[in-house]
Amino acid sequence: MRYFIPKEYSHRVYNLSKRGLKMKLKSRAVVSTLGLLALFILVAVNSSSLFFMHEGIDKLSRANLTLNLYKSGSSDSDSDSRHALFSDGGSDSLSTKERKKNISDLLVQKDEIVERLLEFLSNINDSGFDFDGYMSYTYSDLVQELSAGRLTKARTLRLSPTGRRDKLTNFDLFHGGIRQFALYNPNSPYVEGLLEDMHTQPIVSMDTMEKGTQLKMGVVFSNGARAVFKPMRWPRDRETDPNHFYFNDYERHNAEIAAFYLDRLLGFYSVPPVAGRFVNMTSEIMWLSTKKLQKTFYTSPVNNLCFFGECTYYCDSRHSFCGNGDIIEGSFMAFLPPDKFALRQRWKSPWRRSYSKLRKAEWEVDDNYCQEVRKTTPYNNGKMLLDIIDMHIFDFLTGNMDRHHLEIFKDFGNYSFLIHLDNGRGFGKISHDERSILAPLQQCCLIRESTFLKLLKFYTGPEKLGQLLRNSLERDVLRPLLADGHYTALDRRVTVILKTVYLCLEKTDKYNNVIIKDKF
Ligand SMILES: Nc1ncnc2c1ncn2[C@@H]1O[C@H](COP(=O)(O)OP(=O)(O)OP(=O)(O)O)[C@@H](O)[C@H]1O
Ligand SMILES: [Mn+2]
Question: What is the pLDDT of residues 139-165, one digit of tens each?
């Protein structure tokens, strides 16, 4: 396998030492003196709310957001020179009232509590939040602006370069492009290229993966790329059995694919690229696998080829994977770099479920659970807790209750992003919203501002999350990937999240206590 660090990325490094942050701030100051000017205003307004954040990070974040999200208030600087995401729209011929009315006409389903949230936001003049400017943005523009912090030229993994650059595959480029705050850059052509490769490249090796509890296979393609293959277990319109506990639920190949697109749509960039593919069970699985695995193949009474493979759970003839003839669908998730190049660290999530029918987890019985978590390393660094909350919001949207571990690249340290592997237990229920997945948001009453603004945009429209995801999923060969009801469920769940945020705001009555401005 070949690795390299793309040249254009290797010269700027996020250094978490104070000196590093100061240097970063300094370079920003050169780019925009206005940023600093507005920073001071913001610092004065918000100094009390971000008490738990690392001081340096705090400054950096505010500088960034001042540039993008806020009106300059009493600042006398020239607004055209700013990258103002939310311009004040002064030249617009419509009055504020008219614009608000036009926008609210676009709302399909209003929710009384979220309406109150909007009212609250339109009235918080003192923090300089430009509500009208925000409302005039489309989701696509918004996500570009708000997720930019994740894609800045943070450092990549230290993978040693071998091989010539023109010979590098999309898979190599994906590994070379993994950064401290995002797994990939959605604007880089290698992402689409890798999806295409996983869909078209001949499969040359297929082996059972030892890791995890349910069957999954390690695949090697002819160009050297590797992927985790999860075959289709059941039809995509079949919902989770309500009598099953979350830990008895099967994995769904389509959920893995949909989760990748949802994560990308939300601007998190934490799920490795996943592509769907039809696989020939005879030539692409059986002939390539071990004798042991081959022994689990059989022909079903209706002449479909089936196998059950080897794994800790559900690998017996009552839980088989059966093809249509000998063709089966499956998801292919790009492999992360192997441990010897980039070690990952995995530990139990504080909001892990008990995985027992009888026992409750600590977070389920202790209302002050978050206050304790916030004091502990690494959740006190100002980023990881917000990442966990983002992750649970993501899991709540898909309905995945199976987030038992947190995982990062060791090389990036505690101030890095969480990798979202294992999304196969999402999209199992259409009409049920599992609110307990939102526990970290509910208990900590914190949400990253960018996440909040993105979700709110789905509520105000005109673009809705369900429709946007439906459009994205059209690209995959296994379309349609989700039963129709899942798209409506997503829109409904956005509202549930926003209501949760409003209830937090109501408790503290202060925007900055709940909605945290950091650079992500
Ligand atoms: N894309 C990937 N690249 C590298 N390793 C991976 C990838 N996907 C999964 N793995 C490895 O396999 C392990 C198990 O994967 P996954 O969590 O999807 O399976 P699982 O059967 O649901 O596991 P569990 O029972 O622990 O929930 C992961 O923790 C990770 O170490
Ligand atoms: Mn799992």
Answer: 999 999 999 989 988 999 988 655 555
Q: Which residues form the catalytic set?
A: 402
State the pairing for strand pair 447-448/515-516.
Answer: parallel
Pairing of strands 321-322, 305-307: antiparallel
Q: How many angstroms separate the alpha carbon of residue 177 from the centre of ligand 1? A: 21
Q: What is the ipTM for the molecules in this complex? A: 0.96
Question: For residue range 38-66, what is the model confidence (pLDDT) as tens digits?
Answer: 444 444 444 333 333 333 333 333 333 33
Pocket of ligand 1 (CB under 6 A): 211-214, 216, 228, 272, 333, 335-336, 402, 421-422
Q: Which atom of ligand 1 is nearest to the CA of 214?
A: 21
CA distances from 385 to 198, 340, 391 (A): 33, 28, 10
Each residue of 219-259: pLDDT tens digit? 999 999 999 999 998 888 888 888 888 888 888 999 999 99
Task: Looking at the CA of 395, name the nearest ligand.
Answer: 2
* CA 144 – ligand 2 centroid, Å: 31
Q: Would you kindly state where each structural domain of the chain is located, as residue ranges?
A: 165-334, 344-516
Categorise residue 174: left if φ over 0, alpha if ψ from -120 to 50, beta otherwise: alpha
Determine the atom of ligand 1 nearest the C-alpha atom of 407.
29
Query: Can you tell me which atom of ligand 1 is nearest the CA of 333?
Result: 1
The CA–CA distances, whole Å, from 294 to 132, 212, 282, 305, 383 equal: 62, 21, 10, 12, 47
Which has the minimum average pLDDT: 179-188, 204-213, 326-335? 204-213
Give the annotated binding-site residues for ATP.
Answer: 214, 230, 251, 407, 422
Ligand 1 centroid distance, CA of 212 (Å): 5
CA distance 300 to 306: 7
